Amino acid sequence: MTEKIFNSIVGMEEENALKFAKEYLNDGGDPQKLLDVCREAMDEVGEKFEKGEYFLSELLLSGEIFKGIMDLTLPLLKESEVETIGKIVLGTVQDDIHDIGKNIFKAFAEAAGFEVIDIGVDVPEEKFVEAVKEHNPDIVGMSCLITAGINPMKRTVEALKEAGLTGAKIIIGGGRVDEEIKEFSGADAWADDAARGVRLCKELLGLGVEG
Amino acid sequence: MAIAVSAEQLAKERLTRVEAAINLEEPDRVPIWGFGGEIVAKYAGITEHDMNYDSEKALMAIEKFARDFPFDTLGAGPGGLDGRVFCVAFAEHDDLSPLVTFITGPLHDIYGDKYTRFPGREISENATAQFRGGTFMEPDEYDQLIEDPVGFVAETILPRVCKNLETPRDAMATWVRVGMQLQKSAMQGAKLGEISAKLGYPMLPMGWAYAPLDIIGDFLRGVDKVVLDIHRYPDKVKKATEALKKPIIDYALAYARMGNKYAFIPLHLNEYLSPKLYKEFYWPTLKEVILALYEEGVKSIVFFEGHHEQHLETILDLPRGWGIAYFEKTDVVKAKEVLKDHTCVMGGVPISLIASGTPEKIDEFVKDLLEKVKPGGGFILTAGVGAVPAETPPENITALIEAVEKYGKY
Predict the structure, then answer these.
(1) How far is residue B80's CA from residue B93's CA, in Å, rounded to a whole number?
(2) Coil, helix or strand for A136?
């Protein structure tokens, strides 16, 4: 059954994936195992995206399928049982109110096992600093869509450094970021899609270099 | 400039240059298409709020930018965000549908719309105006949209989107105020035309059009939701794009009847879709819009947002010389190979290079790029997106223009 679930997630069969997951749990299946299978499936979707076989529409749909299955699964797991692989403080930088990219990344990061603290959109430097102080994340994720977000990213990286918060790795993401913007902003990594973003987050923490 | 050239002469030279590229010929040199963005306000020392709400200051800023950065076309323009859903609502009125294409700052206040955020209103006065969209239609309403797209948008969607169109009595006052504001915008437009002519910019009378699926994504269901709808309710989505085709063509042709020879079509969902979905849900109706314009002698300038490599070949479905394919992140060298002698290719310079590079790096980049894309003509150089950030070093833009002068000659 878990194989059927895996295949229907990767195959973008939303109805089947939810139906099989429900059946699996009703038949006394292990919710932890289901979570693992779903995470593996999402990983596979991410890989297909990076290979150019899948596109944003598939990322969005699989994120939705994953969320649907998690709504059934997570209540059956104790919070302490849900293993996480790292913590990310995530927000769209100041003067940018867009959130679709941030939300896709968040869905994939959570599916990969990250705990994500979403601090919203149009987030000023001070709020990033406060959130990093409060949550002590492994990674700070900054998102922007519009070109006006480039300089706020740089300012936020600087603000974190000035506050002495150098423990977390910084990744920037969005349609208009690239290597040049990464250098400019002083971030540790960049991604212009969620799949690459999550892969790099794992790499930044020395995880997920398998296969 | 060594020899003083009259503004009129300059405009003629620029127009000839741009038209030659569009017609897939070699001009005297590669044209550089104008761009603007947040830098326009910053360069003139005004706020984004001024840019959107103070017509005099905005015109001053545009003039200063247009004077100091001599592209081949006018790049800077007054503030405004896409409001194409209003054009659908007015599609039965040729005299009005083009006028409501944009949601400007003052119109945003009058409508009370939930699509946009404006500087000094919902966001800080130095932030750029932004389109946010949202979900204003439920999946079970597709049938109504298909049955009567204009009526559904006008009577059901707009009252949901705009606080000041919620009730008929509010709507009466709102539309009168909109009309009065459009008069003011027209005056600003006329002044902009004078500035443009004075500075030797060519007249490129520009209308607008839109991809039917983007109407649903940007204005009705939300970008994330429409992508799910394609998987969940494929037939309905397809029928809805078919139904929206007519009002969009009517609106685009209303522009043509006003004498506009070009139509700008910014795309949004192209990058989201796999080739299969693109060919089934997006391209067929967009293609018909482009062809309807082409038949009336209007050339389209299509902005293929993000990556479009996966759909490049579909452009060959259009007749040779149909217009300009403007690419953001698609490799223009590859695009030019595929579209050679068929479609004029535009773009090439990443926004990141302009925003955070140096004049030397820009010079080197343009030299290298033009070596590859210049031969044979049919290429216009510009920034990957027409909006550069406020803090962009002005010398970078000058370096870009000079590099095109230097390396772009045929």
Answers:
(1) 22
(2) coil
Q: What is the CATH number of the domain that holds A21?
A: 1.10.1240.10
Tokens of B113: 């719309």
Total number of residues shown for chain B: 410
Active site residue A192: no
State the residue for tokens 């991410």: A46
Bridge-based pairing of strands A86-92 and B206-208 is: unpaired
What is the domain range of residue A70? Answer: 2-77
**Number of compact structural domains in chain A:** 2
Q: Which pLDDT tens digit goes with each residue over B106-145? A: 999 999 999 999 999 999 999 999 999 999 999 999 999 9
Give the residue from B231, B215, B274 showing the smallest Cα distance to A63: B231
Tell me the per-residue pLDDT of B175-207, one tens digit each, with 9 for 90 and over.
Answer: 999 999 999 999 999 999 999 999 999 999 999
In angstroms and rounded to an integer, the radius of gyration of the C-alpha atoms of chain B is 21
Chain A residues near residue B230 by CB distance under 8 angstroms: 57
Q: Could you say which of A55, A95, A183 has the minimum Cβ distance to residue B272?
A: A55
ipTM for the complex shown: 0.92
Q: Are the C-beta atoms of A44 and B264 separated by less than 8 Å?
A: no
Q: Residues for chain A: how many in total?
A: 211
Backbone φ and ψ for B318, nearest 5 degrees, come out as -85, 160
> Looking at residue A211, what is its pLDDT?
37
Chain B residues in contact with A122 (beta carbon < 8 A): 123, 127
Fold classification of B7-77+186-407 is: TIM Barrel (3.20.20)
pLDDT of residue B39: 96
Q: Within an 8 Å CB–CB cutoff, is residue A67 touching chain B?
A: no
Cα-Cα end-to-end distance for chain A: 25
What is the phi-psi region of residue B24: left when phi exceeds 0, alpha when psi lies from -120 to 50, beta otherwise? left
Quickly tell me which residue has 């500087």 as its tokens. Answer: B119
C-alpha count within 13 angstroms, C-beta hemisphere, residue B291: 13
Nearest to B248 by CA among B81, B103, B88: B88
Q: Would you say A81 and A32 are in contact if contact means Cβ atoms under 8 Å apart?
A: yes
Q: H or E element: which one contains B159?
A: helix B158-161
User: Domain boundary at A28, A59, A77, which?
Assistant: A77
